[in-house]
Amino acid sequence: IFTLWLQPDWLYKWFPQHGKLVYYCKVLHDYTDEIIEKKRKQVAEREIAKANGTTQAHQPLNFLDLLINLSGGEKGYTNMELREEVMTFIIAAMDTSAVSMGFTLMLLAKYPEAQKKVFEELDAVFGKSDRLLEKDDLPKLQYLERVIKEALRLYPSVPIIIRTTTEDVVAFKENMTLLKGSGMIVSIWGIHRNPKYWGPDAHCFDPDRFLPERIDGVPSCAFIPFSHGPRNCLGYQYAMMSMKTVLSSILRRYRVVGEPEAGPIPHIRVRMEIMLKPIDGFEVTLEER
């Protein structure tokens, strides 16, 4: 992406990176194809059992079940089409959420007071029980949600998005016209740290900036970790629920320890690849409570 001379396909094929890309794509494709084939067999067996009246207790359906069922089973999507959907979930859903949770844990390690508030909230919801989190618990974890959103604001797992104009657009106070078909890069990192939208403390860690009375005055397009509009991330709700579920499970059992920050601005050196990553890795330690 960032090496101009590797962008033309005809030239890229002559570099060793192309061979590695082909190899790793094959590994990933073989893995997803195996998952899809197993699932197709399970769906077929379930239909046979249903026709014979031998269906067992209800089993919850996952995303791949729904894709195969709603597309008409064997008459629906091809394996290649299903593969693309599965790879989207593996790459775009799992990795981005994992990175976001990593940054959230690092920030909680740097700001023990925020971590204490999260634990107090968890204690109020779960008490001393070790029961599993239920769906009805998620709306109660409001401070944890604010912490996650602040982590996504400061360290969006996808720091830029690329869009193509569908018509001529006049931008920058009419000093520039972007012609139809122009490519543009939207800096989520820059928008999320712009004092115009977030005030003079835009670089500071402050989960309470997402309190309803404070966030209401912020334009909706100023917080776009999942993009915005009709082309935004379809997994937004899923990502938030999964992150709250995993982080609550970790923080109920462990204290996250790291080097505390002396001030409100977190100092985490990052590099931008396809996703944002900390240069020094996710440096935290978990201590059992």
TrEMBL record:
Keyword Ion transport among record annotations: no
Broad class of the protein's primary localization: endoplasmic reticulum
GO cellular component: endoplasmic reticulum membrane
The keyword Endoplasmic reticulum appears for this protein: yes
Required cofactor(s): heme
Signal peptide: none
UniProt keyword list: Endoplasmic reticulum, Heme, Iron, Membrane, Metal-binding, Microsome, Monooxygenase, Oxidoreductase
Protein residues bound to heme: C233
Family that this chain belongs to: Belongs to the cytochrome P450 family.
Protein's UniProt name: Cytochrome P450 monooxygenase
